[in-house]
Task: inverse folding
């Protein structure tokens, strides 16, 4: 396996992605955790040093342990990773007075040739993406130069004897068009066969779960979303009835959702499942609450209480399973304690393990969303589950601005079902990241069948996104919107006006609260 040492670059995740696309298994670990002992235990076949925001001149600058260079394995250093390699191996780095490069640059080949660059330099120069202040001014003994750019004379360097490679630019980003080729060459030179598949991952993950859990019992909060579903099925495959799932029904789910989830897990997978029907508790506590943050915090707190109540009935539970994905891990590493403001208190089961004295099982920690979907397919999860749009933990509560009432929830559920049905019928579901209805806290006047109506207005929302961090509204045709509005008003009593939300994120957010 390949080890990526993360020095804090914003794009380290993309390195992992490029490698998985090459069917190479890799893990990213923050530099602070990579000690001599760690390296000895991990025994990487190759390493990549990521970029990062630091300068090697800074006090306490992030460094790999010296033993990394003595393991006899290939190393590829990127940007800060290159500078660190040169710094550690006897080269020189210079502060970037006037030679910083950000953005597009062109690298031209030197006379020397190296297999790392097979397939490169077709037309004599190649576009790359740079983002550096400092730069290497003297390469370390043993290294040669294979490519230069105006502000980075040592844009591509290598010590072929030791199989150390170091580049100043970022081959993992889209704006380095031949970057993937460079990774491909690197892993080939490092001897990887490219035989890592989801099937292999499944087997490895199952073995790891068995080793971690032993004879103990695991509990898993199931939301019906893709991540927790895949985690639960994988763990069930590993330990069978040592797993119990808890599905908390807070009364804020979509139409028929609870039945669908519970049936799927009980009937198809024979997984032990507690259906915690607690809607009275949640809806009672939310009565009269209209502030979005108070809603979120109330739901988060009750969720923990309820989960704890059911979990304490399961004897011998020592582990809590979570469907944490790789981007969640990285975000919490790079941003914990950071200066970002709270836009919304996202509800999850954070805080549970400490409170309950449980250890964590997180079998998806190394995967990206699309890889989790691939694993789900591998595990036989139906496509209808795998392709589901994300649904937030606080559920319909945050799609019901203002006070939440049972009446509004019922109307919202039915309107949402019609809207999603329309989207499916038009074959648009998979093109959309997420679509839902929000019921507005206003009633408006209408006329239906010669009579006056005074009913709720609603807003349709549909966005495209790759990660939920930024989003754009989906450009439905006017025909589609018109037809959907007519259907909702005709089929859902209580709504007489339909609007379409055309706000992107930012400045909007995807959910309304
Ligand atoms: P926003 O509204 O912040 O949403 O643009 C981004 C994505 O996150 C989902 N979301 C949540 N998911 N718990 C979750 O598990 C939450 O509290 C929560 N709030 C928002 C939202 O549906 C969208 O996919």
Result:
């Amino acid at each position: 396996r390949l080890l990526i040492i993360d020095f804090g670059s914003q794009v380290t995740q993309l390195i992992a992605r490029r490698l998985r696309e090459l069917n190479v298994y890799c893990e990213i670990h923050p530099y602070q955790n990579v000690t001599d002992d760690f390296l000895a235990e991990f025994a990487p076949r190759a390493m990549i040093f990521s970029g990062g925001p630091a300068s090697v001149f800074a006090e306490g600058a992030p460094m790999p342990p010296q033993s990394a260079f003595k393991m006899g394995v290939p190393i590829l250093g990127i940007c800060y990773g290159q500078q660190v390699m040169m710094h550690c191996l006897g080269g020189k780095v210079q502060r970037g007075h006037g030679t910083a490069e950000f953005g597009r640059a062109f690298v031209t080949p030197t006379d020397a040739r190296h297999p790392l660059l097979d397939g490169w330099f077709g037309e004599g120069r190649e576009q790359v993406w740079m983002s550096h202040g400092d730069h290497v001014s003297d390469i370390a003994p043993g290294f040669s130069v294979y490519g230069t750019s105006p502000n980075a004379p040592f844009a591509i360097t290598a010590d072929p004897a030791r199989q150390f490679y170091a580049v100043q630019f970022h081959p993992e980003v889209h704006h380095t068009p031949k970057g993937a080729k460079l990774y491909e060459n690197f892993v080939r030179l490092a001897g990887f066969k490219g035989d890592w598949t989801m099937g292999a991952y499944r087997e490895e993950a199952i073995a790891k779960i068995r080793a971690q859990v032993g004879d103990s019992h695991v509990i898993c909060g199931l939301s019906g979303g893709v991540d927790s579903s895949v985690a639960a099925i994988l763990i069930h495959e590993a330990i069978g009835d040592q797993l119990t799932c808890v599905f908390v029904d807070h009364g804020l789910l979509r139409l028929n959702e609870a039945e669908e989830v519970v049936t799927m897990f009980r009937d198809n997978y024979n997984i032990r499942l507690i259906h915690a029907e607690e809607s009275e508790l949640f809806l009672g506590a939310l009565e009269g609450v209209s502030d979005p943050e108070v809603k979120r915090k109330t739901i988060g707190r009750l969720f923990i209480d309820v989960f704890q109540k059911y979990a304490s009935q399961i004897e011998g539970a020592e582990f809590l399973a979570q469907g944490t994905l790789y981007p969640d891990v990285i975000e919490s590493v790079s941003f914990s304690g950071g200066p970002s403001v709270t836009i919304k208190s996202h509800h999850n089961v954070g805080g549970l393990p400490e409170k309950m004295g449980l250890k964590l099982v997180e079998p998806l920690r190394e995967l990206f969303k699309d890889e989790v979907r691939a694993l789900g397919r591998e595990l036989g999860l139906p496509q209808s589950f795998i392709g589901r749009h994300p649904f937030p933990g606080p559920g319909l509560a945050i799609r019901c601005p203002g006070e939440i009432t049972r009446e509004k929830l019922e109307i919202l559920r039915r309107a949402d079902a019609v809207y999603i049905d329309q989207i499916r019928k038009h074959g648009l579901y998979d093109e959309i990241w997420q679509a839902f209805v929000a019921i507005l806290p206003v009633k408006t006047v209408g006329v239906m069948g010669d009579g006056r109506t005074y009913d709720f207005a609603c807003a349709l929302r549909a966005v495209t996104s790759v990660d939920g961090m930024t989003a754009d509204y989906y450009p439905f045709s006017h025909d589609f919107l018109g037809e959907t509005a007519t259907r909702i008003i005709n089929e859902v009593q209580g709504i007489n006006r339909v609007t379409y939300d055309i706000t992107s994120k930012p400045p909007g957010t995807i959910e309304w609260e």
Observations:
- The chain has a mean pLDDT of 91.
